[in-house]
Amino acid sequence: MEKLTVLITDDDKDIRDGIEIYLKNEGYNVLKAADGMEALKQLEENEVHLIILDIMMPNMDGITATFRIRAERNIPIIMLSAKAEETDKIHGLSVGADDYITKPFHPLELLARVKSQLRRYVQLGTYNGQSQSKVEVNGLAIDLNAKEVRLDGELVKLTPIEYKITELLLKNAGRVFSINEIYELVWNEEAYNAENVVAVHIRKIREKIEADPKNPRFLKVVWGIGYKIEK
Length: 231
Description:
The chain is an alpha/beta fold. It has 8 helices and 11 strands.
């Protein structure tokens, strides 16, 4: 099997270098980044199988980086944070992280988490050496290469923004996204008074994919939280 690559993202060089030593001793390829922006650039230029991602970083923090990563990739993310509060752990996991470890940590504990996540990613078929190109949920399907959405085989004509929202929710079927999360991931800018903008696009998407938009089969609202595509 090919060598697996781990991307270490932390603004502390000593932590990056320390983790690198342990990972290389276990036979992993290692890439490093000092913030979320650098991590996204590394992901564009390299095949990465797992990300170790600090929460508190300059330029782009780990939470924002996770939003961006999860919009396109399902690779495992292990979050690091100096904060031990339960709310930070829940926040990290809710935005798409697969695991969470609090600083200071023992390198062997982190290594065990890395191995566990990679084992699940590779052996359970999530990773097959190619990026996922098609997703289907109960007859609603998206072709990520052709950028097309079909309902029971029939092409659904969506605007670029409608497509991006549908892609985000379909690729993460069952997961609830807040209005601000949807806005930031689709528009790639900080959400400000985004409720009406997102709601209008959700309504238009429903009109195109739902037999009865007032009683949606696919695109559900979770009151007080956000939206999801029902699994």
